[in-house]
Amino acid sequence: MPSRVLNFPKGFAWGSATSAYQIEGAWDEDGKGESIWDRFSHTTGNIEDGSNGDVACDHYHRWREDIALMKELGLKAYRFSISWPRILPAGRGNVNQLGLDFYSRLVDGLLEAGIEPFVTLYHWDLPQRLQDEGGWGVRSTAEAFVEFSDIVSRRLGDRVKHWITHNEPWTAAFLGHQIGGHAPGLQDFPAALKASHHLLLSHGWAVPVLRRNSHGAEVGITLVLLPFELPSHNSADVQGYRRFDGYFNRWFLDPLYGRRYPADQVSEYVAFGILPPEGMAFVQPGDMEAIAVQTDFLGVNYYSRMALPSESAPEGESPTAKIVSKEAEPERTDMGWEVYPDGLYRLLNRIYFEYQPPKLYITENGASYSDEPDRDGRVHDRRRLNYLQGHFAAAHRAIECGVPLAGYFVWSLMDNFEWTKGYAQRFGIIWVDYVTQQRILKDSALWYKQVIAENRL
Ligand code: FCB
Prior knowledge:
Layout: E1 13-17, H1 20-23, H2 36-41, H3 59-73, E2 77-81, H4 84-87, H5 97-112, E3 116-122, H6 128-132, H7 139-156, E4 162-167, H8 169-179, H9 189-213, E5 218-224, E6 228-229, H10 235-256, H11 263-271, H12 287-291, E7 297-301, E8 306-307, H13 341-355, E9 360-365, H14 382-400, E10 405-411, E11 430-432, E12 439-441, H15 443-454
Parallel strand pairs: 1-2, 1-10, 2-3, 3-4, 4-5, 5-7, 6-8, 7-9, 9-10
Antiparallel strand pairs: 11-12
Residues 19, 22, 167-168, 171, 224, 301, 364, 411, 418-419, 427 line the site of beta-D-fucopyranose.
């Protein structure tokens, strides 16, 4: 333990996070439509352990028990997402009341337990029907997202006072459309750029709708952001740094904070033939103003840092060149991600002082370690506890520097379906036995309970 007592601001939202596809199961129950993640995970070869989210943590049926666990931990806030095809099976049009009822009961249950709901509208499970019409590659999907946001916020807006439009548009756009590692599994860089624009546009359009339907609510968006390391200050490395930062961080931060798409990055894409000579032809008048709508907070997902390989920007290499770790032997989680708490401190400072969001939440941070229940029936996940402790301390240092950090959501409340990794990676502070659906609070959860109760590290 650090020798100093680290107090967190009064009212700090100590929370935990999940997402619909990763925990709910009930993939085709009560009128739910198919999502791109249902399709993707049902396609052989896409998920490393051959699994899918059909049952996952069966949270759709066990939500009461899960709220009871959150209450036992003393959580102040819980971040979860809404499955779009559970509400609108075809993506737009007919509303499935049973889907809305589920989330309405969940919200009531949370509020009764004294837990503040933070709702993410899009955590990657696009209705397959919309994908069939072009998905995020077409503008009409952004319009459908506004319809979805309107329906959900009309029903929940009296009780939900924290809305996150999108989770990690980088991942949805680039991992899903350029790299092909996530649904819909495309490898088409121009399509990824279009998708990123339509995701951002749908955010900009949805914000006023959420405000209208949910009086006094805070509305924001969650980005996954990375601190990149410069191998040296020679000009090739500096250029490489700008390129990666432009691709990953600035591509989203700049337009959201009124600076439009980074011009250096756009010319890069034109130079590489990824965009036509006329550039971002799919951006229409008014789009950039819509995207730059004022928000109440920025959600930050942070897991690790990335270092650029030395000689990171050789002439003619594509702007997506590999990223390597800086240390020869870094401490890594089971995902292979380096443990680097200082990156969180640096990242929070950089975002706040460069973009000045009125408020920040860490909407995800956590670690995958596969520790299993011991003979005593307990899960001694010391490495996760250490990881969280180091990152909480880093966040606290950022607060001391003046960063208005208002809450922290540990990823994840429970072990769950980790996308292409299936169930092999366990991020939970609660253990899940996927055969019996038994839950066990891991040591990290018991420790977190104490942190929350005392509001100090
Ligand atoms: C984030 C995702 C979340 C989870 C963690 C490990 O990128 O938002 O759903 O998979 O990574």
